Amino acid sequence: MQVHETAFIISTYRSYHEEISQDFYSKLWNNDATEALIPEILESVSQDEAVLHSLRNRFFYEQLSTFFKKNNGGTLINFGSGFSMYQFALDKNVTTIEIDKKDIITYKKEKVEYWTKLGKLPDRDIQYISIDFNTCSVEEVTNIIKPLVKKQPTFILLEGVLFFLNKETSLKLFRIFNTLQNKGDRIGSVSYLPEIENTEVYKRLLHYFDSNNDTNDSFNHQTIPNSFYGKIKEYTLKNHIDEFELAKIYAKEHSIISKDHILNENMYVLEKL
What we know:
The radius of gyration is 18 Å and the shape is globular. The chain has a single domain, classed as Rossmann fold. The chain is α/β, with parallel strands linked by helices. It is built from eleven helices and seven strands. This is Class I SAM-dependent methyltransferase. One of its GO terms (molecular function) is methyltransferase activity.
């Protein structure tokens, strides 16, 4: 399994629970190859994965919507955007900068433009950038992105990315964010707590990844303590919740017994000081 395949899987998860995810466009990415993979993933790892990813999407949709409504628009900068579709659910006064690896960006741009012409997607101001976070310097990334930010304020989204990066690259990303943002701008981030490494469900996840990994596609398995977010210079933590708690709000009909039985991701919202 390659990293870009997870983009198809996660978008399909969101389409299974539209009432939770509030993503009514993700089904455009659905395809037979991904549909064939999902039953084995749910069986091998966790039956709750589709619901959990829908909850994650719902949390950030609500955060983005509230932020941009309050500020009458702005710019969403989506690092590791995959096939997320937030921009089409947000108001038209929000500009989006999508950042990911070349194969994902090229494919997504082509499909989005095609679906927009067909009227399946509303027209939005979207700019696409192909960057490898691991190899580019802070200055290189900043110089590419900064001229593209035409509307203030900004909300940077880092969703489903940190798990695949090492600590050095993760710290570099937050230095990049600091150079791009102004006071009051926000960051949304997702990560696992280190405690999850002791759970059976997390061990099953790693086993699945390792068993289905292409020989040339390397994965980092990064978990991050809450304290990491409290130490980021020039930012303050505004919101923190995990998927277990989100389920009590948006997925009451889904019985989730405990945090230890799910791949419980934590969502954080930081504000620039």
